[in-house]
Write a structure and sequence with these properties.
alpha+beta, 5-stranded mixed beta sheet, single chain, two-stranded antiparallel sheet, Heat Shock Protein 90, Serine Threonine Protein Phosphatase 5, Tetratricopeptide repeat
Length: 584
């Protein structure tokens, strides 16, 4: 009875949004669950209430910290439903931050664990629906279709919420496949379920969200705008800044598509202002969350250090007494004690090293999560600035001075976005052992894309040329990474070439593709040609950039099985040679 009462209080604070009281009440309910030997209640209250509450408050770092704690405890107890609950919490966190590949991975882990261990879960079709929606966003149509098929096979048709979620997943799939008639049928089923079941009123925002997606895809702009107005007055959009701000972006996109550029500008401006506020709050929350985590870690460390100090003092006193009693009479025992003390210190050292290793691994995971969060938070306002400046440029096409200012904003934002991409890419690639190099693609595609990417930066007196040696040749490659390297090298050439020519070419020799980027610019002194590949190295301290571009290019080249060097024999400028495996 006491546990039930505590559980009801947790639910009351959770659904009423009383975040100040829920933490203390969750701790009380967890203790009662342990005392009653009820692990199901223990992990449900921890994951589905406390951690979900942190996610709703956008306290993602604290949420990740709590999930890691819960996962460690569940694994120690070997409680499979608790581990599955941790996987679900990880998936929801990454889904809320837009990290869809990780969200899919943890939804799949949760489902696989329930099915492999034959653990009963009435709401498993809901998890299949979430998995399918994430897969659709990443264009993984086959994975989405399989998830929907399995979810419908296990769906309880008497449960309106399960039917609702599977209809929503099917709706998104049909919209993705442009089968609008089937999509409308699924939407009408969802509307009917909400109309006929009072308990579905709490999911009315989810229905409106589905309606908005349908109207956007079918270009019913007036209905889409009306749905946005409804969502802005409903929970959780009404009280959640990043959700309500996303509606401003959707509104701006609709106005832009219908040619209402003034309204689009106003909507984008509201979106940018909201993003500025959200970014500031996010940074403050991140600092506060890390301070909270740090304080907890320091308290635990101090407590452990105090306990170890007491133990060491007790052990030391014991050793002194034994030494005093037996040293004079038994020499052999003295040596035994000495060896015992050395072994004890060795074991303590091993334990400390093991703890340090675990902390380092945990810190690495938290750093990766933090980088993903910050990547999303930084890119979003920058993308907004770029979009807004493009709208301004279109609106002021007949005003040369204003168009020039808009173009400057666009270029500056793009440069800043590229610099941030370099830093984040370098941090991400450092943690990867190797990069895939097995994607079939035309050998000329990466070259053409890189040429197109830098063509707008070419100075008037410079000629940009691409000289292909093969046509319609399909190879095994990594088009994204190869394009990234070639674009960076061409971008460097455009910065330091004032007149003459920049040429991209390649040749195939001894099962190797040798890409050549040649310019007639200022060149690189021979004694500096290896130094420039080091991180944060810039020969000209006044030039734009972080000094990471060439270092990142070489790192990527090596991890896809190639190398990047400078041709020392070329003296009329600079020539970079990118050598990669030739695999058909």
């Amino acid at each position: 009875m006491e546990l039930n009462a505590a559980w009801l209080k947790v639910d009351f604070y959770y659904f009423s949004g009383d975040t100040d009281k829920i933490e203390a009440q969750v701790e009380l309910a967890k203790k009662l669950s342990k005392a009653c030997n009820n692990p199901k209640a223990y992990y449900f209250i921890w994951g589905n209430r406390l951690i979900t509450s942190y996610i709703i408050q956008n306290k993602m770092n604290i949420a990740l910290y709590e999930v890691n704690k819960m996962l460690k405890e569940a694994e120690q107890e070997d409680y499979k439903p608790g581990i599955a609950e941790c996987f679900r919490s990880f998936a929801v966190i990454y889904l809320s931050q837009g990290v869809l590949p990780l969200a899919i991975e943890y939804f799949q882990k949760e489902i696989d664990l329930y099915e492999s261990e034959d653990i009963p879960n009435h709401n498993l079709p809901v998890e299949y629906s979430s998995l399918a929606q994430c897969a659709i966003e990443l264009n993984r149509v086959e994975q989405a279709e399989e998830a929907i098929k399995k979810g419908k096979a296990q769906m309880d048709i008497s449960d309106p919420y399960q039917v609702f979620t599977m209809c929503k997943a099917s709706l998104y799939l049909y919209l993705h496949q442009k089968e609008f008639t089937k999509a409308l049928e699924e939407l009408q089923t969802m509307e009917k379920l909400c109309a006929e079941n009072e308990n579905m009123n709490q999911f009315i925002d989810s229905l409106h969200d589905a309606q908005l997606k349908y109207y956007r895809k079918t270009r019913q702009h007036d209905k889409a705008l009306a749905t946005i107005d409804k969502l802005s007055k409903e929970e959780p959009y009404k009280s959640t800044v990043y959700l309500s701000n996303g509606l401003n972006k959707d509104r701006g996109n609709i106005y832009r598509e219908t040619g209402k550029f003034a309204d689009a500008t106003q909507a984008y401006w509201q979106y940018i202002q909201g993003n500025d506020t959200l970014t500031s709050h996010t940074m403050q929350n991140a600092i506060s969350e890390f301070n909270t985590i740090l304080e907890v870690e320091l308290l635990q460390k101090d407590k452990k250090a105090l306990w170890l100090d007491v133990q060491k003092k007790q052990l030391h006193v014991t050793y002194l007494i034994i030494a005093f009693m037996f040293t004079l009479s038994i020499v052999g025992l003295f040596f035994y004690i000495r060896i015992y003390k050395l072994n004890t210190k060795l074991k303590n050292s091993e334990a400390e090293l093991r703890i340090a290793k675990e902390k380092a691994e945990k810190t690495s995971l938290m750093k990766s999560a933090f980088i993903n969060n910050m990547s999303h938070e930084i890119r979003t306002p920058l993308n907004s600035i770029v979009g807004f400046s493009q709208v301004l440029s279109e609106l002021n096409a007949d005003k040369p001075e204003l168009k020039e200012y808009s173009d400057i904003i666009d270029k500056g934002s793009s440069d800043l976005l590229r610099l941030i991409d370099d830093v984040l890419s370098l941090s991400s690639i450092d943690q990867e052992d190797e990069i895939p190099y097995n994607i079939p693609d035309d050998i000329n595609n990466a070259c053409n894309e890189s040429i197109n990417a830098v063509s707008s930066n070419i100075k008037p007196e410079v000629e940009l040329a691409f000289v292909p040696s093969r046509h319609d040749l399909i190879i095994q490659t990594n088009p994204i990474k190869v394009t990234q390297i070639l674009t960076q090298l061409l971008h460097n050439a455009t910065k330091f070439t004032e007149h003459g020519k920049i040429e991209l070419s390649y040749e195939i020799v001894n099962k190797q593709i040798i890409y050549s980027i040649t310019d007639t610019g200022i060149g690189i002194p021979e004694e500096e040609q290896e130094h420039v590949f080091e991180r944060f190295v810039k020969l000209n301290s006044f030039s734009q950039g972080t000094g990471l571009g060439l270092s990142l290019c070489r790192l990527i080249a090596e991890k896809i099985g190639g190398c990047l060097t400078i041709d020392k024999e070329y003296k009329s400028g600079c020539r970079f040679l990118l050598v990669l495996p030739f695999i058909q």
